[in-house]
Amino acid sequence: MEKKEKSSSYSHILKYMGVFGGVQGLGILIGLVRNKLIALILGPDGVGLISLFNSIIKLVSDFTNLGISTSAVRTISEHFDTGDERKISRSIVVIRSWSLLTAVLGMLVCVVFSQLLDSWTFSWGDHTLHIILLSPTVALMAVTGGEIAILKSTRQLRSLAVVSVYHFAGALVLSVPVICYWGEAGIVPSMFITALWQMFVAIRFSCRRYPFAVSFGKPVLREGGGMIRLGVAFVLAAVVGSASDFAIRSYLNNTGSLGVVGLYNAGYMMSIVYGGMIFSAMETDYFPRLAAINSVGKVLNDTVNRQIEASLLIIAPLLVVFMVGLPVIIPLLYSNAFMPVAGMMHAMILALYMRAIKLPLAYMPLARGDSLLYLVLESAYAVVVVALVVLFYDLWGLTGTGYAMLLTAVLDFVMLSFAMYRKYGFVFSRNVARYALLQVSAGLLSFAVTFIDTPWLYWLSGVAVVALSFSLSAWVLRSKANLVEQIRRRFFSH
C-alpha cells in the first residue's frame, strides 16, 4: 500500500512538473528564440537596459501588490479542498477587486517616484519619462497576478501551462517587431504590449470557470483586508528580494557599465531563469498542495521530501548538460559577445543544485501562513547576496558574482534547514541525502570538466558525466514512478 501511495505521489509530481507534457518546454523554446533575436538586435547594452527596466517594474509591483497573489493561493486552496463553491466564488471576487485596486496603486507609485527611481538606477541621462511610461505595465501585471493566483489555487494547471505558452508566443510575435523597428526606443512599448497580452490570456482562461466579477463594497474590502494583513510580511519579503536584485543591477551599472549589466542579465537568465524553469512548474502544483495541509507532522514532512527528491532527480541531469554545453549554448541563445559570462554561469549552475533542495523548504512558511518567519529568512538572504556580490565583483569581476550567488545559496540552504527543523520538525529523508550526494557529485564532476582545455577530452568527459547523471535519475524514477512505462504509453500507445 505504501509503495502504491509513493508511486502515485511521484507520478503526480512528475506529471505537473511538465516532464511528459512538453508544454513548458515549448514555452521555453519560444522564449529562447525571442531573447536570441533581442540580443542580436540590441547587443549587451540593450539587454542591460531591459534588465534595469524589468528590475524597476518588479520592485514597484512587489511593493504595491499587497501580497494578494500569495495570500490568495493559500485562501482559495483551503476552500477548494473542502469543495465549498460559494466560498471559492466569494474569495475570487475579493481577489479580483483588490487586484484592480493594487493595479491603480502600482501605477500611481511608479509615476510619483519615477524621478527617485531614475536617480537610483542610472548614473547617466534622464529616464524619468521612461519610468512613467512603465506604470501601465505595472498595473497590468497586478491584474494578471490575481488571475494566475486563481488558476493555481483552483488547480487549473493545464490552463496555466497553456497561458504560459501563449504568453511566450505573444511576447515573441508582438514585442520583437517593435524592438526591431525602433531599437532601444521600442523597449518600453514592447513591455506594455507583452503585459497587455499576458493579462488578456490569463483573464480569458480564468473566466471560463469563474466569470469576471468585482465589487468595491465594504464587505468585500473588509474580507480583502484580512488577506492583506496576512500578506504584509510577504509584501515586505518580496520588496526586500526585488530591492536586492535592483541594488545589484544598479551597482553593476554604476560601477561597471550598461554592458556589464547586460552580460550579468544574460547569465542570470540562462542559469537562474531558464535553468530554473522546472522550479516554476513545481511551484504551480506544489504550493497549493502544501497550503492545503492543515497540520505539522508526517504528511507535511513526506510531501516536502518527495518534492525535493523529484525536483533534484529531474533537474540534476539537465544541469550537467547545461554546464558541459555552455560553449555551444551561450552563442546559440545570445551571441559570441556574451561568452565572458561563462565563468559566472558555471558557479550559478552549481547554485541551482542547492535551489532544487531548498526551494520546497522555502515554501513551508508561505503555506503555513508564517509570514514573519518568511520575511526574516528572505531578508537575511537579500542582505547576504548583495554584500557578497559587491565584494566578489570588486575582487573577481563578473565571474565573482556567480561565486557570490553560489556561496549565498549554500548559506541559505543551511539557514533554511535549521529554521524548518526548529519550526516544523522537518528532517530530510535518507533518500534525499542519498540522491543529493550522488547528483551533486555528478555536478561537481561536470564543473571540473570545464577546466579541460583539450576539446576532444572536454567533450568525451562531458558526455560521460551527462550519461552518469541521467542514468542515476532514470534508475530511481523508473522504480519510483514506473517512468519507462509512462513514456511508452504516452509516445507509443497509438
UniProtKB/TrEMBL annotation:
Keywords: Cell membrane, Membrane, Transmembrane, Transmembrane helix. It comes from the Bacteria. It holds the Pfam family Polysacc_synt. It is a multi-pass membrane protein. It is found in: Cell membrane. InterPro entries: Poly_Biosynth_Transport, Polysacc_synth. The chain crosses the membrane at residues 12-32, 38-57, 93-117, 129-151, 160-179, 185-207, 228-248, 268-287, 308-330, 336-353, 373-396, 402-421, 433-452, 458-477. This is Oligosaccharide flippase family protein. It comes from Xylanibacter caecicola. The lineage of its organism: Bacteria, Pseudomonadati, Bacteroidota, Bacteroidia, Bacteroidales.
